[in-house]
Amino acid sequence: MATRNHTMKALAACATLALSLLAMAPQSAAAQATLPTWREIMIYATDAGYPAVLSQRGVQGNVTVELALDDKGRKAVVAVRDSSRSAELDALALTMARRLDIPASGERRSGLVVFKFKKDHISTIAIKSCADFNVDAAWQAATFPERSLRELPVTYESIGTLIYSMHREGSAPQSFPALEPVLNATVAACARTPEAGMLDVMRQEALKLIEQ
Prior knowledge:
elongated; 4-stranded mixed β-sheet; 47% helix; 212 residues; alpha+beta; 4 strands; disordered N terminus
């Protein structure tokens, strides 16, 4: 029972942290839209629809597509409502949207479909290299200069994974260090040691800050 409670507390801490990080992200135009969201579709780098050439360059993000149906349920309009800032991802999302089978429902003839292209899955973070993380960070900085690195999906998922693993090992501190110093230290360390594992580097840098 104690082990179960320990695990549940760790999972709750990870979930709380991830939600707080997501709340810091700026609202997109799609999030403010009055049209209903018909579907949200997640596409990972391991999926056939996500070209390896894009994921290897760190290209990822969300594309919101607006669909308008005629009175027979056929697609009359398919257009990008909120861009990923990648022409390739936007084009992929449009192609996927045109293939969707969405029946007309009542008087609602227009709606949104959100395609979420994510490089990393929770199961792949443990083997992610610093070199791969460096690529992601560079793409994020070039494409979204107004955003913090903490808004990169792999960032908050890695922090959550790290906290959970430390709880399981019984090595979690009473209070985890502030997020920004951990991320800044991880970026700097990964730049120096691209051959290292990203999560290992993040752990080392977090422990250094805890010991200060």
